[in-house]
Design a protein that fits this description.
The chain is α/β, with parallel strands linked by helices. Helices cover 63% and strands 11% of the residues. The chain has 2 domains: 331 residues, ABC transporter transmembrane region fold, CATH 1.20.1560; 217 residues, 3-Layer(aba) Sandwich (Rossmann fold), CATH 3.40.50.
Length: 568
Amino acid sequence: MIRKLRDLLTKRDKQFLLGLLFFSIIISIIETVGISVIMPFIAVATDFTLIHSNEYYRYIYEFFSFDKEVLFVISFGVVLIFFYLFRSVINLVYFYLLNRFTQGRYHLLAYRLFENYMGMPYKDFITKNSSSLTKTIVTEASQLTHLLSAALFMMSEVFVVAFIYAMMLYVNYKITLLLTIILILNAFLMVKTVSTKIKKAGVLRAEVQKNFYEIINKSFGNFKLIKLQSHDKDILDDFGKSSFSYAKANITNATLGQVPRLFLEAVGFGMIVFIITYLVWKYENNISAVLSLISMFVLALYRLMPSVNRIMSSYNQILFYTKSLDIVHNDLMFNSEKLGDENISFRQEIVIKNLEFEYEEHQAILKGINLTIQKDSKIAFVGESGSGKSTLVDIIIGLYKPKKGEVLVDNRPIDEMNIKAWRSKVGYIPQSVYLFDGTVGDNVAFGLEYDKQRVEVVLKKAKIYDFLTTKNGENTLVGEGGVMLSGGQKQRIAIARALYANPEILVLDEATSALDDETEREIMDEIYEISEGKTLIIIAHRLSTIDRCEKIYKVEDGRIKNGRSHVK
């Protein structure tokens, strides 16, 4: 666990933690002093003769020129009051710094997770479940801050316990050793029973919460289908099971988390009674003579019990949230793409040489592909589903890296140093268009700086601007997933989005396959019109969508079977 936390924390975080470590030692010393001074104060308050018989009291008495013993005791008490006020303030400052550190880590962890997901190679990203990624950012990163907080609380309380324990050993080692045996037995019992169950509840919490997110995402994403099929009861049952299991795991954690405190309180009060009983038995008289000793032990236990309880509670919280650390650590260990900023020009041709690709070892999707695409040409890839045509285009536009072979642009290979610039030259129009809940303009400019004039220009090119003027222009709301628009309107917005960055290459990935024949013809006419002066690559099933392409390549079993020129 420590190694994983070190991997997640930055150098500055570790320096801050070191500062908190030293601060916690200072706090522990202050706590110990606060307890240890009670015994001499009560002793001198109950017996003024100690002021003159004890060399330390006498020295202070004479140094400050006290003329009455009562003034000395009153001054002692006033100093203690201010000391305890100072103790409270310094503890408050420590807890502020501790909470600022732990809660501030959520922002950094969530940002790093999101950055890592965004930098994930496309091949890796498509194997992930989006609801799991969302859960990791929103929930697991937050839970990890609870683990960090628990670890820091436990660290600070360990120092408090160590210093107070050392003081108790110094005052009376026999009583202290007896108390130690009782506390160790108590801790062993808690770890073997309560802590084990809390750890299991933490693993269950992570698993059922994953199902929780998945059910929500797939249900909201298929809301229309659920309404039509009227099987929402089954979905509600699944959600209910996950929700109940999640609640049950938290109930277990919250309930068992109180066991150490309640048990320790019983043990603590029992030990106080035991100490008094033991002293009565030892001295066979009233114990007013050892009142200061009793007061010190009572106060020490009063302060020690909450510290031991916090250590046990923090330990259990660490166990409960350990799965969050595993999840966040694993997701931050993904290799993000490290891309350079080299530019690349496209003036002549794209050449694909001896290209091979596979998703899984020894299961080739593409084999021995050789192809040349001239700039400003219009080409199409056709073939059965699963033939590899979409994968081939994804390699051409830089989403996948070939296993063998290379893609050259004007005799320059596409690599990590220039692939970023190459991707920026591509305008992509998918079959399934995802529009987020916002305005048309925001959806068109998605990911780029918003330019109202450019938005209007591309909406006009996509032949949807006139329709939008009857609504609210580029400020027209589309609804989540574009539910407030027709299929053709969504496709036109996708075209406008693809044109917004003024790409040199337009890619249509079966972009019109879900449209009716008339809407498809209209949109394809518009695409051919706006692709003048651009390279157009079409993936299609219907031949009607590629009737103006200069070359049509048939992809079959991962190979290009033929590439024929289309006679217009």
